[in-house]
Amino acid sequence: MSRPDVADSILRCDDVSMVKIGDTVVTMSHVAPFTVVEIVGTMLTIVTAQGLRKQVLASNVRLLEKDPPATS
User: Fold this and answer.
1) In the predicted model, what is the mean pLDDT of residues 28-42?
2) By residue range, what is the domain housing residue 42?
3) Segment (H or E) for 55
4) Do the domain assignments include residue 57?
5) How far apart are CA 71 and CA 43, in angstroms?
């Protein structure tokens, strides 16, 4: 079961225009958050704080919102 507070702050990136350089994203293949550092067509270059660098399709990442929704 997923936690509602985490699930609500993740957006699916079906359209590459949703993602911009500097955004924080996650992938299903690695547990750490990544920062988008380059966008070429539908390909993103993403990097972790530890320096792990990957090239992935925009449709394979989920965008983390900067400010999660407030809980009531």
Assistant:
1) 92
2) 4-64
3) strand 53-57
4) yes
5) 34
